[in-house]
Amino acid sequence: MTDGIAAKPLLSARGISKQFAGVEVLGGVDLDLMPGEIHALLGENGAGKSTFAKIVAGVHRPTRGTLTLNGAQVEVTNPIVAQRLGITLIHQEPISFPDLSVAENLVLGLQDGAPLSRVPWAKMEREARRLMQLLGVDIDVTRTMRGLSIADQQMAEIARALASDSRLIIMDEPTAPLTPKEVATLFTIARRLRDEGRTIIFISHRLEEVRALCDRVTIFRDGAKVATDSITNLTDDDIIRLMIGRPLKEYMHKIGTTIGDVALKVTGLGRAGLFYDMTFEVRRGEIVGLGGLVGAGRTDVARALFGIAPADNGQIEVNGRPVQITDPTQAIGLGLAFVPEDRAQAGIFRTLSVEHNISAAVPGRIAPGGVIRRALERAVAEQSVARLSIRLASLRQPIGELSGGNQQKAILARWLLTDPQILILDEPTRGIDIGVKAEFYDMIGALAADGRAILLISSELPELLALCDRVLVMAEGRLIADLPRGVATQETIMQAAVPRSGAHEVAA
Amino acid sequence: MSVLRSVLLRREAGIALMIVLFCLAVGSYKPQFLTLDSLRIILLLTPLIMIGAMGQMLVIVARHVDLSMGSMMALAAMASGMMFRYAPEIWWPLGFVLSIGTGMALGLVNGLLVTIFRLPAIIVTLGTLNLYRGLTFIVSDAKQIDRQYVPSALKAMSQTSPILGIPWIIFMSFGVALLTWWFVMHTRVGRQIYALGSNPVAAPLRGINVTKVTLIVFAISGALSGLAGIMYASRWGFVNPSNTGNGFEFQVIAAVVIGGVSINGGVGTVLGTVLGVLLLGCVAAALPLLGIPGTTQSAIYGMVILVALLIDRVVRLQGQKPGLSGARV
Fold this sequence. Notes:
The complex is a heterodimer. Chain A is α/β, with parallel strands linked by helices. Helix content of chain A is about 35%, strand content about 25%. In chain A, strands 6-7-8-3-9-10 form a six-stranded mixed sheet, sandwiched between helices. Chain A has a six-stranded mixed sheet with strand order 16-17-18-13-19-20, sandwiched between helices. In chain A, helix 4 crosses helix 5 and helix 8 (about 235-245) packs across helix 18. Chain A contains 18 helices and 20 strands. The two termini of chain A are about 30 Å apart. Chain A has helices spanning about 50-55, 80-85, 100-105, 120-135, 150-165, 180-195, 205-215, 235-245, 300-305, 330-335, 345, 355-360, 365, 375-385, 405-415, 435-450, 460-465, 490-495; strands at about 10-20, 25-35, 40-45, 65-70, 70-75, 85-90, 170, 200-205, 215-220, 225-230, 260-270, 275-285, 285-290, 315-320, 320-325, 335-340, 420-425, 455, 470-475, 480-485. Chain B is mostly helical. Chain B has a single domain, classed as ABC transporter involved in vitamin B12 uptake, BtuC (Orthogonal Bundle). Helices cover about 70% and strands about 0% of the residues of chain B. Chain B has 14 helices and no strands.
């Protein structure tokens, strides 16, 4: 819009860097945001776009770098300061006070005055109604936030941004949980806000949305800004190339294994709203990757296979026999194992010892007759620790004290005790340092060589390329591509993973 | 009319209905239950619980709990009682000042432990429940403050007043309820208590001073316990280190929960709490009339609480569409 014109930027970021625990996740980002533009931030998962947005909104403090707002340098120390400066971040899942009314949610934290000063209910509700009218949405402002749809909660958040007269509104993947109709409403409102001279940062994975809505794009890769340009100057292919164009790091070369019979076959598997019509198979000795962007439905497929949130339709066959899997116990009985992504939530018993964590999968083996034999338990755990070279001070140590990589190994050890024939790994190397990662890759390779079928979910392209015999790619709940080794490259995977104009239909 | 408001209205209407039905049921056996005299008995049973319930309501709305109320009440009442014993000539309303001040200080200690050390309130106040009770024994040398030391003007407050002969403490308890209503509905801090209880994670992000709000809530809870303490001295004419306020917190929490205050925080009204207190008062007044022995009273109390909660649960489940009940964010 204002691109190229010598307008003064609303916000200038210079040399913004951020480290988390010594790891640089964002390095030296310079970016100017103009008044009256919708600016897209694009990049792979972990490229740094959300971190940048959160720094602007005061959720994180930058390790280095400065922000200049309307020509004056500002310190955005927390989200309240940001809001006072006219910067509002709208979270994908809005943070609100579910028991308070919509109107109260809009103004909370904005009012000044003594603690005992009166709450102007009538004025507050009038103002809230005016903002909702301005947005053209029909939400009763006296009802509580609890029970509002995500779309309506987002609208309330946008209204909150307007209540503080924000000049810069950051929307972090706002469209992911919305229906197409809700997306259309959101876009109309975003355009209207832009035309009023406000600036909007729009973070999205969907190229077709970025193309429909945004004026300029900035592309992030590996924590750095790689390009800022007008959207009309870039083709979809340009954007994808910019997003992934890093040197390919080869971690390992897979040992040759013999690929055997089909261990897991899935036909037309679907669960409403999450994934649709998944058909694929995994053979013994084969490592099949499942790639795609976060939110593409990969984990949901894994959860369905393991019976945590079973599929509504479709068929699963294990070793050629059709099976019904409606809860994890059945899945375990059929020789499946699932190592979930979120260790803290779904994997470990944080305060229990490493030993107990490992033996938790095989209560029968360590407790013949229902009474735990300490010696048996210890032997089982010691074997596992040696086998996976888990580094620890003592078997009695709480597992929470181990490093991420060693925790992950302990969880894997637990599942290996059940001798699974089909192993589903969800982002097994997330948050693990590079050295332990290589060990993990060897381990996964060895497990496949043993004749196990492995389904590996990963967002790291080099990992998929290095390990997998085939890579399945999902986008928006659908299987888009099935790429054999050799055909799979960073480009072909990303081409399939990024939902974009004309590539495929978006499900309603 | 918003959905929430109608639900809450139904909730409060529900308690009111329970009160009416209960009174009619008891009245059909014992007609004397439906007289002004028994209304007076009911109202005289409730003032202390009413005042405590207002403080407890604020604490629970903020997603905490205060188990130390009975002990704060005892220690505060003991402080005033000892002042009366050592200085009989003192201007008796100073008893209110000392009792409320002592209670507030004790409440602040609770609040500081909860905020500074980030300890769960249930553990902190379980500790101070015993600590404050123990201190009451120590300062009083385990001796009761007898009737002759409690000023007669103070005792008279529980007997009568110039207004229709209704004792002052009843007016005071409703006055406290009214003040609490004003506080939670019309002041910024009042609303922040609800916001904090509704989403403690988001509260600091929205500029709410969590420490300050938490301290205020515990200080009020302590101050109201102190007020209940001096009113105990007025009502019963003595202060006893082991009896005064014993089990008070549980009656109060029962009233608050029956009144529809969510133990998960963020939800609760003064009207609901008042009705919860009155329902408990009706039950307490009816039991001796029905000839139910004192030994079973405790069990019946407990049953009333569970039945009220069950009815509430059933009503809510029916009023809700599936999927709406959702876990809190």
